[in-house]
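haha ok so turns out i had the wrong file open the whole time. this is the CORRECT one, sorry everyone. sequence first:
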Amino acid sequence: MTKHGYRLGVDVGGTFTDLVLHDEVTGAQRVHKVSSTPDDPSRAIVEGLHQLCELARVGPADIRLVVHGTTVATNMVIERTGVRVGMLTTEGFRDVMHIGRKKRPYNFSHSQDVPWQRHPLVRRRDRLTVPERVTAPAGAVEVPLDTEAVRAAAQRFREEGVGGVAVCFLFSFLNPEHERRAAEILRAELPGTFVSASHEVVPLHREYERFSSTAMNVYVGPGTSRYLRNLQDSLATYGVASGVRLMTSSGGVVTASAAAELPVTLLMSGPAGGLLAGIQTGVDTGHRSVITLDVGGTSSDIGVAPDGELRMKHLLDTRIRDYQVMVPMADIETIGAGGGSIATVSGQGVLEVGPASAGATPGPVCYGRGGTEPTASDAAAVLGWLRPETFFGGRLPLRVEAARAAVKARIADPLGLSVPEAALGIHTVMTHTMAAAILQLSVRRGHDPRRFDLVAQGGAGPLFACSVGAEVGARRVVVPPHPGIASALGLLSTDLRYEYAASVWQSSGALDIGRLGTVLAGLADTATARLRADGLGPDETDLEFFADCRYAGQGYELRVRTIGPRVDDSWVAETVGRFHDLHEATYRSRFEQTEVQIVNIRVIGVGRMPRPPHLRVAPAPAGATPWPVAVIKSWFRYDDRPRLFETPVYQRADLAPGMRFTGPAIVEQPDTTTVVEPRFTGSVDDAGNLVLVREERG
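then structure:
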């Protein structure tokens, strides 16, 4: 008899913690959802795992792998709860972190907030300098490192009580020896203190971005490491003996030890899982170009995947709360619009929704946990879209009258509207916010959203699926079988990925092929060694090669997929040709007579992990139609005015492939509720996805 092994995907959001248990033998999946515990996220994980194991009758020892998407590092940045950071830098360059790139939110304003100056990651008093100097272009030592000055700085950091130290020297990406020696001294003088050297975090040119990324790594490092230790200890105490792997911002996973070394790579951990799940949904439906809308309780994550491709942001666009972090991130935009987004009326009498959120505590008014301000979820309850007795699988009875009273007192009465008008207004504002973000992200990248499917995910995504899909003109709206736990499912649909990079500064007209080959081979060896250390053999791994290229005279690069690891004339021709093609696709222009500069080269080590099988659902008998479990009265906007409809309610579990129905309708399941608006037709495909198409209006 085959012994079953299981993999667990866990995504911790601001309001709910989602878990999915995957049977490696049968491919069966069990999903579960519990309220998050912001004071200690690991507590919700263990509580949810305990409940899920009981429901599935699985022993914790049978879980062979835990893959986790976390917002712990992100929350530290948003809430400004990271450690006090000290910085050791080259003499004369103390203020690189303050000056930045002189980019300001408003170029012509005389008075404005510059976030990295108003709330610096490293205060000026905590930025210390030491004599040392490495020069470009070869990394020659001009001024030796003063090791006694490093020890004196360590003493100063100890007296000031900093929680971590970033070592950031000029041109260390060309020669890291000074940084390496300084970090050794600091670790010896300050035992237990989190120390990061910039060549370990971002070994690339651009001093400000490298310094800022390293400071951010230190800022979130101690808290992230502590969280990972607590999580692993809690899981071990419960009986889970497997290791934990973490989703990174680039859509790959790494071991817990690697994540503890570079926690800055976790800043967009959770959203990346949702985008991967949406891409998989596109593969299942046969329409690979998708826009993902993952709406949680606090925020919405939006991604665009043309032809199913997971794209990375440009490294100069990778930031969090206006702090530059030059680490790989999937091309995802996060906005402050979620089910818990709070609705208010401004002093000018304008209805506003978000970005402030009720979160998990106290939550929306209808949750009955002490919330007093109306939210997007309260509006949905007032409109009759959420049934009190079935919400959250019946585990969270809603207090609709309390929500109605809050919407009336805080929104309807101040604006002189009826309660349904006010609730629809809240929903409409949220729709506009999400649609605007989708249009900006897609059109800015040169993509027409009318050629994409909109995949609605997250606990609140299907509430907005039809309205947002209609506004952006999406080809179809697709709601996957378990949209409320999409990010957790996405965690089980990726591979181990380790990225290594180096700045090489080569021009196509005068390439040092020998040096390029040596650097690329070294990166490949480093990536391979890391994968071997994780226990993966040659038949389980791959290497991917990239070059950051630009035309001579340009200030920014494009990331080009290339070949490797052998570098020769054919490698150069292939790389330069692909850059011309990518530049033309991005900017609609190419300059083949202009010299191409290869600024950085990259190697990604990929450790292949087994994917959940592509499951097909048995079709319904020919001509079968869904049977509603109830018919309720619900409000919808119809011909630009509120209208009350008799609305059938279906259980998602009762909808089989081949079934069709028309809106308005409500589709309920334990992890979410799908609102099918008037003029939409719903059907179920053979993968169990709910496909919603808007009728053409004459």
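The longest strand covers residues 496-507.
again sry for the mixup
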